[in-house]
């Protein structure tokens, strides 16, 4: 059974590889190639990931199987009663085995006491939209997220705790 634990600075290279694989698999055809390239080379550079992992306000948890990082979640409080899920990724080879749900459970447990969880999911990301619906999120509206000069339509997901 894959194990969950907090991610730390020394996991940065494993995290970089996981995000690269997941971004190429998830966003091809949904996001412009230029955005995917910027994500992989800039936002997910080892240095950027290290900054995130070392942020004491942020929660990063990973799922490991035989020492390999196969899934991750990051989340943080955006106001007193609200937690935001920033990232949730499971390797394509490991999806539909309950790992995404376990990572979400861990993030919510960490912020016990919060009243709601929010997130943004790209309009065309059917896997993500279906997963969050199954988890109990409802979609309360839409927004446009600016990524690397592009405007990406997203749904606003919300889960009352
Ligand atoms: C979304 C994601 C994290 C789900 O992780 P996962 O480990 O596969 O999810 P789980 O196995 O816990 O799935 C729980 C339930 O969600 C629903 N679900 C998950 N993936 C689904 C899919 N591809 N299509 C339809 N429903 C899906 C199912 O109801 C599933 O239960 P079931 O397998 O018993 O039918 C994973 O697909 C992923 O990494 N996708 C790419 C990145 C992404 O879209 N992240 C979220 C947006 S930022």
If strands are numbered along the chain, what order do they take across the biggest sheet? 1-2-3-4-5-7-6
Which structural class matches the secondary elements?
alpha+beta
CATH third-tier fold name: Aminopeptidase
Spatial extent as radius of gyration: 15 Å
Q: Which architecture per CATH?
A: 3-Layer(aba) Sandwich
- What portion of residues belong to β-strands? 35-45%
For the report, how would you describe the main beta sheet? 7 strands, mixed
**Ligand inventory:** coenzyme A
Give the fraction of residues assigned to helices: 25-40%
| Strand count | 7
Unreliable segments (pLDDT under 50, ≥5 consecutive)?
A: none
Query: Could you spell the SSE succession in H and E letters?
Result: EHHHEEEHEHEE
Number of helical regions: 5
Please report the distance between the alpha carbons of the first and last residues: 27 Å
Please tell me what the overall shape is.
globular
Number of domains: 1
Summary of the model, kept short:
With about 160 residues, this protein is α+β, with helices and mostly antiparallel strands. It has helices at about 10-25, 35-45, 45-55, 100-110, 125-135; strands spanning about 5, 60-65, 70-80, 80-90, 115-120, 140-145, 150-160.
Which helices and strands appear, and what pairs or packs with what?
Layout: E1 3-6, H1 12-27, H2 33-43, H3 46-53, E2 59-65, E3 68-79, E4 82-90, H4 99-110, E5 116-122, H5 126-135, E6 138-147, E7 150-160
Parallel strand pairs: 4-5
Antiparallel strand pairs: 1-2, 2-3, 3-4, 5-7, 6-7
Helix pairs in contact: 1-3
The structure holds coenzyme A.
